[in-house]
Design brief:
This protein has 6 helices and 9 strands, in the order ααββαβαβαββαβββ. By secondary structure, the protein is of the alpha/beta class. It has one domain (about 5-200): Vaccinia Virus protein VP39 (Rossmann fold, 3-Layer(aba) Sandwich), CATH 3.40.50. The strands form 2 sheets. The protein has a 7-stranded mixed beta sheet. Strands 1-2 form a two-stranded antiparallel sheet. Helix 5 links the parallel strand 4 and strand 5 (about 130). Helix 2 (about 20-30) packs across helix 4 (about 90-95). The longest helix is centred in the first third of the chain and has 14 residues, at about 5-15. The termini are far apart. It binds S-adenosyl-L-homocysteine.
């Protein structure tokens, strides 16, 4: 089946599961197969996590949709992502933020950062900037961020990320070691409100404010 038709049937599935139109339109514009390593490319439009090498797994498309939905990314938004992986999720957020917005995405594995950078630039995502470093410390150079999306599970919400969140701003992050909860952190009028959005499964966030025992 051609990629476009596979993408369309995935979008239809996500719509039936309740994803919103804006997020679905953004996902419809991103050729997910181009971000996938060859061995898992045939499964690019299956709604399942995929193993990408380096001991890392990327989220199922429905998780990308759910996180984008919770973040509620308007046009012109400045977004920070921790855990670039293959760069697919960054591309979806770049579609939501539009040409006036920017996505800064941080990865700790050099090969993954390089691959993501190559694919993103080939597809013309000039508003996505990939950085190689420990994302648990955020990216202070360009802070504050209107939205922060963390794609790996942390022991606690890293303090630097809350500090680098704009007011108003929203952050989503999975928290926990074996059993994880997706947390939404909202900063508003000087207050920080944290809400539990339910159980999830992510690879660990490693680094200074992440897990150390792996
Ligand atoms: N958002 C990605 C999925 C990322 S998987 C996508 O849709 O393709 C999680 C990623 O987080 C892995 O690539 C892993 O290397 C990265 N990661 C883990 N700890 C990190 C840290 N401290 N800083 C940056 N990246 C980290």
């Amino acid at each position: 089946m051609p990629w476009d038709r596979r993408r369309r049937s995935l979008i239809d599935l996500l719509r039936r599961e309740g994803a919103g139109d804006r997020v679905l339109q953004a996902m419809d514009r991103v050729p997910r197969e181009q971000f996938m390593p060859e061995n898992v490319r045939p499964d690019a439009y299956e709604d399942t996590p995929l193993y990408i090498g380096h001991n890392q797994t990327i989220s199922a498309p429905s998780m990308v949709a759910a996180m984008c939905q919770l973040l509620d990314i308007p046009e012109g938004c400045k977004v920070l992502e921790i855990g670039t992986g293959m760069g697919y999720h960054a591309a979806v957020m770049a579609e939501l933020a539009g040409p006036a917005g920017t996505v800064f995405t941080v990865e700790r594995i050099p090969e993954l950062a390089d691959q993501a950078r190559t694919v993103l630039s080939k597809l013309g995502y000039d508003n996505v900037k990939v950085f190689l470093r420990d994302g648990t410390e955020g990216l202070p150079d360009f802070a504050p961020y209107d939205r922060i999306s963390v794609a790996a599970a942390a022991p606690d919400i890293p303090k630097p990320l809350v500090e680098q969140l704009n007011d108003p701003g929203r952050l989503v992050i999975p928290v926990g070691r074996y059993f994880q909860q997706l947390m939404l952190v909202e900063k508003r009028g000087g207050h920080v409100i944290t809400t539990d959005k339910g159980g999830v499964a992510f690879v660990p966030l490693l680094g200074k404010y992440g897990f150390k025992g792996y």
